[in-house]
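Quick check before the chapter quiz. The format below is the same one you will see on the exam, so make sure you can read both the input and the output lines.
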Amino acid sequence: MTADSWTPKFSIEPPSAKYAVLSFPAPKVLLIRLNRPKQLNCINIEGHDELERIWAWLDAEPSLRIAIITGTGRAFCAGADLKEWNAQNAANRVKPMPASGFGCLSRRSGRKPVIAAVNGICFGGGCEMIINCDMVVASSNATFALPEVKRGVVAVAGALPRIIRTVGRPRAMEMALTGRTLPAEEAREWGLINKVVGDKEGEVVDAAVELAKMVAENSPDAVIVSREGVKMGWEGVGAEEGTRLLTEVWYPRLLAGENIKEGVRAFVEKRKPNWKEAKL
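Here is the expected output.
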């Protein structure tokens, strides 16, 4: 796969990035590659601010429908920049985490889905990020952990209340209280990730791109509303209340757009739909 195999025409210019590389591996797909390999892609204060701008741009830019996040080198993301944090503690100037969490992703709601392509070490804040991603693909050598208890801190970026809904109470407790490392296959068995692929360079990103292309080919309106429905169930909204919100709030927005008519029309006419950009 080439670094840029699709040349988009943006309505909104992409934000500048110092600690991440942006590319476009397929139509409508944004690839974000964390790019601090010597620091195992730990995210510093400036990196959080940068990612906040990138996620906002993803949701606002009509030419994009989905994003993938991965890492450079042997790590996806090893968590917070503890050297920076230590210096802040010494100066008594600790900056609070953004409201959207670690990497502005661990508590992100957003409009458009995000896939994590975990290429290696995924610890601490990195693991908190993937727990809130919509799908996760991992290389066979990827490892996952919430090791905060080993450092006297706590995973407060959103992972703890969320991971119990993904892997269940006993396994969530095991991760949170022991801080032990899970290999990729065990993480898959637990339901923490979708699939495991080989560990050749670029293989995990290629697999994530294939998933992203399937999503990007669908109605962008239907993807946004379907994602909202799943999120409501995962975040604790009851089945009936979630259904009510979908039918009374989200579905009328879908009906007001062109894509729902185009999808049915294309099916009847036995052709590929010509989707409009989402305006929900």
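If your answer matched, good. The CA atoms of residues 266 and 272 lie 6 Å apart.
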